[in-house]
Specification:
Layout (H helix, E strand, L loop, with lengths): L3 E4 L3 E2 L5 E7 L8 E7 L6 E7 L4 E3 L7 E6 L4 E6 L8 E8 L3 E3 L3 E5 L2
Parallel strand pairs: 2-11
Antiparallel strand pairs: 1-3, 3-8, 4-5, 4-9, 5-6, 7-8, 9-10, 9-11
Length: about 110
């Protein structure tokens, strides 16, 4: 059974930083892709950042230059470093792996507010 567990969500002021973590029991060095998505209230889930199997990283335009996706294959853990956070980044953040089937974590809440 595939397990994904996110952590690191919190309430943070605008301009602040957070690092999200996602630990899995899957050997992420062998999967087709890993990534982070988010879903704000009343909106569809959207891509934040992905790492493809060839190591290429993809970011949605609104987070480029502020967020960094990474992973530690030895720990089977992926990360999302989020800097210069804005209120519009408020959402539930989900990690994802594609094996080729897609598996999701349970989500972690990020709230950016003063």
């Amino acid at each position: 059974q595939v397990r994904l567990a996110e952590s690191g969500g919190a309430l943070v002021q605008p301009g602040g930083s957070l690092r999200l973590s996602c630990a899995t029991n899957v050997n992420i060095a062998t999967v087709n892709g890993t990534g982070w998505y988010r879903q704000a209230p009343g909106k569809q889930r959207e891509l934040v950042a992905r790492i493809e199997s060839d190591g290429v990283t993809v970011y949605t335009d609104s987070v480029k230059g502020r967020f960094t996706i990474s992973r530690d294959n030895a720990k089977n853990t992926m990360y999302l470093q989020m800097n210069s956070l804005k209120p519009e980044d408020t959402a539930v953040y989900y990690c994802m792996i594609q094996i080729p089937w897609v598996y999701w974590g349970q989500g972690t809440q990020v709230t950016v507010s003063s």
